[in-house]
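thought: fold this chain, then report.
action: predict
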Amino acid sequence: RRGHFAAAFAAFAMPANDRRKRQRTTKHSTRAARDATTRDVVEGAEESDEDAVPRVPGAAYGALLASLGARVGDSDDDSDEGSSEDDDGREGAGGSSDGDDAGEDEDEESSSEEADAAVASEDEDEDGEDEKDEDDAADDDGSSEEESESEGAIDGGGGDEDGGDEDTEVEGALRRHVRLGERLDDAASERLMTQKVTFPRDGATNGYEGANGLDVPSILDAPVVSQAKLAERWKTVTGSSGFASAKQQEFYSMIASYVDVQHGDRALIGDQGAAGQQLNDEILDAVCLHVVDHVTRTRNRVMKNNEALAKKAKAGKKVMEDDLPRDQGFVRPTVLFLTPMRNVAGRAIMRLLDLCPAAHGRNDSVNKLERIEEDFLAYEGSDSDDDNDSDGGGAGKKKKKYKGYVPEDHKAMFKGNTDDHFRLGMKLTKASVRLYVDFFGADIIFASPLGLVTALQDEKSAADFLSAIEILVIDHAHVIQMQNWAHVITIADAMNALPKEMRDCDIQRVHESHLNGFSKHLRQTILLSAFQTPEQNAFFNRRCVNFEGKVRLKTVHKGVLGQLTIKTRQQFERVHMKAADVVNADDIRFKYFVKNTLPRIRENPEPGVVIFVSSYFDFVRVRNLLTKEEVSFAVNSEYTEPREAARARTLFADGRKRVLLLTERAHFYFRRRIKAAREICFYSLPEHANFYPELVSYLAGSRAVAGSAVSVQETAHVAGVSALFSKLDALKLERIVGTARASKMTANTEHPMFLFV
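observation:
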């Protein structure tokens, strides 16, 4: 016992570097012996029990592994997966257990994994999460060739990790972005926070335009990335070393220059690969490439500086405090990816893994793939094309059937797990990708606004992991706006603030801009939406204060009037408002509705009026008005129970209720078919332009349709569609009637009525 104590004391008395080397050597020998024993046991078990039935994971699990270049069903893979779990245990030992902040429950680790994690915890506590040691730990089970490759990359020997010339245009953009950011002062910060953002008003063509006279960044001929492996992976996945289209080329050139980008033409594509990854989405591919490249550059910069400092220390040179490189933030996470639902996040995660070189190599390059399938790709009520879900964990699931009138965009958006409360940490190393890691040990955070806001409310220091975010991606912002846009505002206000607590941070190497509280000016925001809204524009103009500037995509709309399947009278009524009336806009619209629209509804001798309201606050106001005026009406809102909503539609179809009050969020989530509609009254225009022809199609068979038999007495009451709009609804109006018509309708003050047939 005395001998064991003396050996342990001698081990902890030796220098930290020697102790780590000894621990890793001991761990290597222990693991090699354990693997050899496991291999013998597995081989013996295979000889004695050849008919054993293995556990079958989820249906898409094999496709997940196949997409990452792994083999399925091999006994060697079992040992590799065990090694992957060991690696994950060591890498997650720097903070709390994996997935604690991600809001996910972890399975208990084996005793060997706990021992490995304890050793790694000692290493990381002494080194302050040294980047080189973490990546070496991640490569413990790799071959000696991989280790030599990684060491060469650290030394900057022109290996795949560096990729080549650092004087390229994109590399220069990142270096310039960081260098100029360090020179920010209080006056420049105040100017960025208070300046009025203006965009050019001339021109009627599609394209990007800069704010406040900013020149639009030049267009790149091909993606310029830091890794040769990343460029090769891009070519393998997309089939070309360049861009798939001019649209992708322009978009990537914008985000590669590190300016804030508002892209208001984001289309949802329903194509998915066998592993659940998003396919044929040029915008998402460009974003994933930019994110992986940014994380790789950030990691390489820290690793090279670590290597340089180690060489100086080995040579006995004293490093002064002023000579230390400023290359880090307060915490490790640098990218935040906000998506509205799990299915959207799952497609983006799998596409990022497709493009990430570290995810392709060893069989255990990516851990917890089966859990990704369960949490993001698998779901109850699957509407996949495969009717046979009995194999691969699909037993007991019923195929979700859509009715014929449900549009394809609704099927694509709500295909899969539509849970809107989730968060996930992803860590990228040189040779692996770790999922469900602690937020403070992650490089990329995937989350929904609701999931992140609930995490911020847990404790005062919960927002510390957002203090060093350098890229914020908000995907499908128009869907998030249907949920709760206030959550995005809350997250943006909590980001890039000084942390309440320090967590293994080398304060001497933190960026000067972060120490001075200017990190929000170095954050790039990429706002992706199907269309622009006033709320998104306000967020982009006021809370995106990147000192590099901002650009947005200007889109010329053709309108959706040509998509109508029936001919009917459409009457657009302009509510007179000025720009200064933005505060009282709701009151002015309500008074106009009470004075002009409601009397026509009450005088209509026939039931069948659908009142469409885009805002829930306006819905409450109109509902109270109809109750006060004793108008017979039914309600279909997002908070109406399905049984009550069906009963309300039945009463409306039978004529026992004269009016049906419908909200845009209810139509967005459910797409319920409405029968016996004779008039559609838009109290406010829908944000989603495609809702307009869908709602007008409910008039099919009514007297408001052109060609129907209508008597002279009933002519005064036949108005198939009536819509209220104002100058403040210009964005909505141009998506419905077209940009050219909308400019004339909002500018014309003499004629408040516009009729389309």
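thought: worth noting. DSSP finds 27 helices and 16 strands in the chain.
final: tokens above.
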